[in-house]
Amino acid sequence: MKATYKLIVFAILYSSITFAQNQTNTYKKRVLETAEADFLTSYYNQDGDNASVTGGIGSEKLNDFTPTVVVSVPLNDDDVLTIDAGISTYSSASSSNLNPFDRTIKVPKSSTTVITSASKGTTKKVTNYAYVTAPTPWAASSGASRADIWGNITGSYAHSSDNRNTIVDGDISVSHEFDYNSLGIGGGLTKLFNDKNTTLGLSANVYLDKWNPKYPTELHWYLQGNKSLNSNYFQGVPIYNQNGVAIDKTGNTTPVWNPVNYSYIQNKSRNSYSVSFSFAQILNKNAQFSLFFDVVKQQGWLSNPMQRVYFSDVANYYIGDPASIPNYTSRSNKNVFQLADDMERLPSSRLKLPIGMNFNYYLNETFVLRTYYRFYTDDWGIKSNTANIEIPIKISPKWTLYPSYRYYNQTAADYFAPYEQNLSTSTFYTSDYDLSKFNANQYGFGFGYTDIFASWHLWGLGLKNIDLKYYNYKRSTGLKASIITAGFKFVLD
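^ that's the sequence the OP posted. Answer follows.
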């Protein structure tokens, strides 16, 4: 917040100096005529069977609501200050199972018969219930990690040259979530040539993140209890093997659960450095083409300490009802949970190289064609392709429809394996299906309303634009999601 404050102060001071220097200049069109405010929101929900927190198996049910406010203020003819503030509130079955053992269900305990009328000789059966622990990867637990709020604020400042052929910008951002904090700093330079028909852009960003790591409950208490299965959380709690037989937790007569690879993370930093290049060209009065290329380097603890891994070469152990062990990978499992063999472990560096292009073509007064393609590769073994097409249909001077389609595919990371298929002898491993091989289809439809004169007003603000869109997303892994987005742009009178 202090950094954002400094940016605002700098912008105000700089604009004051610039204004004083240019008082005698001839008139020039302002970069932004008046202050604008965008009110944006999105609602996202998903479900699937490959939750990463529970080792690649379990409910992926998640709901997320994200309101955002973006305010852009012209400080003078050449300079614009923008503040972008938003939050994301979510609830997640997967994240809740960081601690699955606080989930309880009501079950019948006993029943008694009571007399309801002595004179009539009527009775009724009364059932007594008890609450029992029922951990499972297929339902949300009631722990603190079930829901959270992510918050972000970004301040950016852009200066345009007198001829509007050069734009210099900078930004600073701060974000927070329950398990990490992030500071971002960036800047860019944009040059326009050839009567503004050609645009070149160069930008760079640095994100300095720090983990406040949260660990799977059983692994955390295993280390906290000095690897004893008879202390802390494990005291008095039976542990069962794959056959549903309770083990001797002292290890004197039976093998015991022993996550030998597990340890707390030491390096809590996760930093990202990126450089982006862009080129755009207006080909003719109907066509525009652009290219972009990014180089992204990540360093630090790049795996997620919340995400469990299960090994194929290690015996399985469970807490809960042993009768449900044979149905562990089915949604019919309501009350048993497998103890993790370790958490996800990935290399401490990653190089990402995306390259893409856009081609937009004005067909006529009704139809516009917008296309996008991106190829991505990294040194973890992932290669992906993204193709998107949108065809805005102008049905009146103010109303436009937006049908769209997006296709995506990727190869698996070198370190990915599904539930129970990683090996304990590997250096790196994950069962996060975001790093698996899959393809996805997304269909979208929306509408937009634009009034360049902002004739409708609310509290001194003129409504300039409305956008409302819906997207349906499906992965080949079974994940399904729906997304609703809405945006309202107002201008200050």
